[in-house]
User: Fold this.
Amino acid sequence: MTLSIIVATKGRKYELDALLDSISGYDLTMVEVLIIDQNVSNFLVDVIDKFKSKFQIKHIKTEAIGAAHARNVGIENSTGKYLCFPDDDCKFLKDTIQIGLMEISKYDVVFGKCVDENGFDSVINFAKEKGTINLKNYSNRFVEATMFASREIMLQFPYDKELGVGTFHGAEEAFDLVLRLLHSKRRLFYTPELVFYHPNKIMNYSSKNEIKRVFTYRCGFAKLCFKHGFYFKYFKRLILVFSSVPFYLVFNRKKCRYYFAELLGLLAGVTIR
Assistant:
């Protein structure tokens, strides 16, 4: 098996259907798809049944908490020489797999970029030029959903299961992985030619979901900073957010709730470890 596509999923059926449909347009004789299903019910059975005749699918139910832990389950159950980890709301474009396999044959880990339905950068603003990733230039050159990696490497460097979506420290598992790989002198590469579709998140400072999200994300950010010694980075953000709360308390109550949740996340992330 050449490529194992590992999809950790929970609570998304139509998005997963679209992702699998985007894969079905390829020659899939050397591809397997591992659906790491964290849903309690048989929520995805009809989607799995729809595609299992088109390509090889391993449907693995797990009670593992968090996307990082679920991806580790996928790594352990994969058989491909190379691995890919799209989010369950991503889509492959027409040449995503070909470019990914071409580039990963030369490196340990390769990252590409995400675009929205209009072809603009989504998630982050990506670097324009391709090149190797190092400890000085990584900031806009990796998003986990675009990653192709050697299975051998990922068995040596599993995700930190205490970081990421679904855990208390709900972010930064990819950042942690990149840092560990770079410190271990692994070869990481970024190319904007490797493209995935990923919907852009629309910022809504007042929604309960967004407030919950910023709290958990900042818990993850705080844990990452203390794990890797980014103390200046942590305290710089803490001071900025702390000073923003009274300003927005006066001028924008909706944003005040958001930044107060972020402040709590920054504090909780280092006290609850």
Summary: The domain at 3-197 is CATH 3.90.550.10 (Spore Coat Polysaccharide Biosynthesis Protein SpsA; Chain A).
